[in-house]
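[audit] Reproducing an earlier prediction to check determinism. Same input, same settings, fresh worker. If the tokens differ from the archived copy the diff job will pick it up downstream; this log only records the rerun itself.
[audit] input (329 residues):
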Amino acid sequence: MGLVAWIAAYAALEPFADTALALCGLTRQTRLGEAVHFFIYDTPKVLLLLTGIVFVMGVIHTFIAPERTRALLSGRRLGIGNVMAATLGIITPFCSCSAVPLFIGFLSAGVPLGVTFSFLIAAPMVNEIALALLFGLFGWKVAALYLALGLAVAITAGLVIGRLGMEEHLEDWVRAMQGTQSAAFDPAKPCWDKRLASGLAHVESIVGKVWHYILLGIAVGAAIHGYVPEDFMASIMGKDAPWWSLPAAVAIGVPMYSNAAGIIPIVEALLGKGAALGTVLAFMMSVIALSLPEMIILRKVLKPRLIATFASVVAAGILLVGYVFNALL
């Protein structure tokens, strides 16, 4: 019944937005009308996508305990562990800040430093929410290319950091904790009632924390969609913009903080105004994978040199992804 209601609500989004706009006495031929329509349509659309995805992932998580995840990654060779950790990041609906506690758990279980960074990068940047929203908004080709390049950034960055041998730049309390915690997990299997309840709990926990970011992101996207002139956007992030526009977009994105669900509406609006896909996606990746709040939290775990190395390596990968997207699409 819930699935039927979800499908029916998703199918009714466009008629609902058109009707609501008409009741407001507006038309899409005006800037205000286009902005209001964008907000009315995208708000329930993103929330429905987010709720459905998080519920499914909440059920899936009942099959894979965090302790088992740490056990699987502990002691893995560099390379194999990076691929496993980055792949794990796809199915964890974490923003950059909420991924940090599991990052610490990996370190405490003795998972290699480079492997933990592959997870930390992939979890916010290439998770299933970002992929589902990109697929729904831009099609499978964009989502698949984003998946491949995002995983490449996470795996390569983890490998580079692992090869640099920077374990001494972990804070002392983290180094003292490494390897001291048990990787055992409870093999008990919950019944389906508990699995479904876990899915609902995930929705309440995650959606309850990020819905205001979604509203804010869609509001910003609506303002951009309705009021920012196309020529102005093209001059900053357009396909014919100078070479420095892409690094500038990454630099602008770092001080911001959002998750994939909150930033996708802004991405959609920017693309609608003629911005280059690679530049916009590089901006998005910097927002969700190199956020300033994440750096502040990581400072409790990592010393400044390791944080700087992490940010530099990831930023270089993001720039490469942006240039590849701009060259191919």
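[audit] rerun output stored. Observation attached for the diff report: The chain has one domain: 2-177+192-328.
[audit] end
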